[in-house]
Amino acid sequence: MPAEHIIYIPMVFLLGFVLGGWLVTRLARRQLPATREPAAGASAEGATRTATSMWPVVSAFAVFASAFISTHIFPLFGGVKAIASATAGLRLLDQQPAFSSAEVYARLTEFGVAGRTLYQQFTYSTDVLFPLTLLVFLLLLARYVSARIALGTRLRRSLLALPLLWFATDMLENSHAVQPACRFSSQE
Question: Is the pTM of this model over 0.70?
Fold first, then answer.
């Protein structure tokens, strides 16, 4: 994990919570205090649907944080630190991108057979399970926030679709990252 992520990732979440809290508070003031009806333009779906409570969001965040710590800080479960240990500290292609086929193959050669095997296992397991924990957290957070602010149906659906879009692009990136390693292994 690049050192920048130690600050970057918590800051992204902090900004998300601050912005989400500000939006919820601001839009809640627009609702009629006596009837607590949604503001003009909000869907009735949001008003009648059971809102996600804070506990599932906090629990999902705890699972995500645990997965992050176990796969990025400690050499457990074939995570980033385990690969770094097996490859004498070489960085993953996610951490230090390569932009040409020759550079990718040169880096994979440096990993050695054991490092490439571990990298493949990582891509098919940890690099799927870790984003899944983040997906669950982001979906619950989006549902929690969207139930508490006045949004039109289209905007609410867009907010709920963003985590799914992120996950789909991450899985697409994973499939492209593992292809050279698979081709490289089959050439040996």
Answer: no
